[in-house]
Amino acid sequence: GKGEDVDEAGPGEGEKAGGERSAKDGSSLVGTWESLDTEGLDEMLEAFEVPKMVRAMAARARRTLKIELDSDKMTFSTSTFMMGRTVEETCTSFVVGESFEGEQALGGDYTAISWWIDRPNAKTDGEADRPK
Q1: 3-state DSSP assignment of residue 100
Q2: Helix (H, G, I), strand (E, B) or coil at 116
Q3: If we measure between CA atoms, which residue out of 63, 76, 64 comes closest to residue 26?
Q4: Of 39, 78, 94, 102, which residue is the least packed, with the fewest Cβ within 10 Å?
Q5: Which residues contact 13 (CB under 8 A, 6 or more apart)?
Q6: Which residue has the higher pLDDT, 37 or 94?
């Protein structure tokens, strides 16, 4: 999907900015984001033979993504709203540099690891700096 930053969150009430942070630490992602457009959603749902009326409702759904960072612990929370009601919520937390497991919304488990990319123009095809 395609998203736009609608509320770039700074420090919340009672929080401190915590000094200088580089783009490497993910702080530039922190905040609440709202999806403005979901490219290819209708085509995907049609491929799964979802009825046209349900596809139309899905197209009108609003989605938000909240990203939080506490040291190296990242939390991604998503909410989907349809017709004024919350219809789905997910939350994934992990520590950067440590393996973590999760479950995909369409089924199936996964194991993943994340790391900070040290070089601003690093490739993401396996050549990026990984934890040592």
Answers
A1: strand
A2: coil
A3: 76
A4: 39
A5: none
A6: 94
